[in-house]
Amino acid sequence: MAKNKGNAVRVAYFVNQYPKVSHSFIRREIQALEALGNEVSRYSLRGWADDLVDADDLSERGKTSYLLRAGLLGLLLSTLAMIMSAPAPFVRALGQALRTARGSDRHWPFHLIYLAEACRLLRCLRSAPVEHIHAHFGTNSAEVVMLAHALGGPGYSFTVHGPEEFDKPQALHLREKIENACFVVAISSFGRSQLYRWVDKAQWNKIRIVHCGLDKAFHAVAPVPVPDIQRLVCVGRLCEQKGQLLLVEAAQRLAKRGFNFELVLAGDGEMRGDIEQLLNAYGLQSQVRITGWISSEQVREEILGARALVLPSFAEGLPVVIMEAMALQRPVLSTYVAGIPELVLDGENGWLFPAGDVDALADAMQDCLTSDAGKLQRMGEAAYRRVLERHDIDTEATKLARYFAGELA
After folding, report:
1. Which homologous superfamily is 10-213+392-404 in?
2. Which residue has the higher pLDDT, 189 or 50?
3. pTM of the full structure
């Protein structure tokens, strides 16, 4: 790995869409690496015209190069240039692209597009040479950097978050992506175990744990007392895997029990219409509020304005919002899914319940809403201590930079 002054490294980050409201953890990781003296170039397929609400995201957009901004012509010219300048590597990469098309849930033309994107990425890197490329997610972003490596580009790594990678590892050809990578990052022990399943034991040493780190804006603030109001907040994209429909069912049970409460759904997404329809059917419009997309600062205010965070996920990696709530000294109600139990300890800093169990969810919500402020404060303090032990952004970024530099085995 080429280095700058001291132990700093030069690395390129590649993400399908950047910046993005739900990808603030990537932004924090990049900014922490830069704060440590490393040089990070940002590359993305799309995102230059997205509506953004966060000032940090707007700043990041100005620092990002977009491969698809030049359109189809840009991809074609980059591909032709690669064919002419490096025919043998191109044929090798073409074979790899066609192999990854076998068994994929996307037909072979998509994989040829990924190859063209890899050609475009390498052409862009000529103006900002790096010795390593890091992708987030084991989906097509990891395939693009793998193909760029096959074309003669730098070594690569990628971070696996889940749950998509865990749902279809064979269709995503995770084995081949891991085998060709310098190393692979899992964000939890659970995530690492899932990657172990799809590669030979000889490849296990490539799989490292780097936790998503927290911005100091979340934890370097004065504690805010638990509010008297009977309010819970759920933060996340409104989608099937987050379980908001089940949360509405649980809210309806609480309402039937005679509890007066508020529930905030902070976020937006493809299932908003379904959720609103269910709220109307149950007559819960006055008790449940949907915010739509909001900034990081607004998320923080919504968490601080609630007694606890509730996230009844069906499938996950390890949600960053859980870390953020714990850093703000709020307990968490969530499921025994993926990496969540590695952070949330039932009865100590939150409540855990089986995914899909609406009665257990309603009982946990009731227990939280009826707990006195002293109990919730103690649980919040325990949550704060645990999350800072495991998710300090500077600690995790330092670890990642050393992996980039090849200093850690």
Report:
1. Glycogen Phosphorylase B; (3.40.50.2000)
2. 189
3. 0.88
